[in-house]
């Protein structure tokens, strides 16, 4: 069990690892809701690619900071999370700011009319949320 307490047991967060870790919860297929959710999810995946390449806010946002926003932990525990981190989508969010619920490891992303902005505008909202150590509603 000593390997659990070694610093080397923590591996760096990568784009594929974070995408696999965050499980999206979509509406039923072939619905308008599902199409909006998939559009928002694709935007979020593009944002994660930008972050992993160090192209957001002068490289000050990392995949670790996004994981911390969702779960409260910067690194995945060696034995994994007790509750699988999820991504859900909400049409009633007042803005494009994502919302983190660390108690249940959930990231809530806006969908619908709030996401009708340009890609860069949505990314700036993501930057604002993930660059701050604030959880919940801003």
Automatic annotation (TrEMBL):
- From the Swiss-Prot or TrEMBL record, what is one GO molecular function term? ubiquitin-protein transferase activity
Active site feature? 103
In terms of SUPFAM superfamilies, this protein maps to: Hect, E3 ligase catalytic domain (SSF56204)
The protein's UniProt keywords, in alphabetical order, are: Ubl conjugation pathway
Q: Which InterPro entries match?
A: HECT_dom, Hect_E3_ubiquitin_ligase
- The HECT domain sits at 66-138
Q: List the Pfam families hit by this protein, alphabetically.
A: HECT
What residue ranges carry the coiled-coil annotation? Answer: none
Q: What is this protein called?
A: HECT domain-containing protein
Q: Which organism is it from?
A: Pocillopora meandrina
Lineage of producing organism: Eukaryota, Metazoa, Cnidaria, Anthozoa, Hexacorallia
């Amino acid at each position: 069990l000593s390997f659990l307490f070694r610093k080397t047991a923590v591996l760096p967060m990568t784009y594929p690892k974070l995408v696999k870790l965050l499980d999206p919860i979509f509406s039923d297929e072939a619905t308008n809701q599902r199409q909006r959710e998939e559009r928002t999810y694709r935007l979020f995946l593009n944002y994660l690619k930008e972050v992993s390449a160090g192209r957001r806010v002068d490289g000050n946002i990392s995949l670790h900071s996004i994981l911390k926003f969702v779960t409260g932990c910067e690194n995945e525990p060696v034995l994994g999370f007790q509750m699988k981190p999820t991504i859900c989508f909400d049409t009633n969010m007042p803005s494009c700011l994502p919302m983190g619920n660390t108690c249940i490891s959930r990231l809530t992303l806006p969908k619908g009319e709030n996401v009708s902005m340009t890609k860069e505008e949505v990314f700036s909202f993501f930057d604002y949320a993930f660059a701050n150590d604030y959880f919940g509603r801003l």
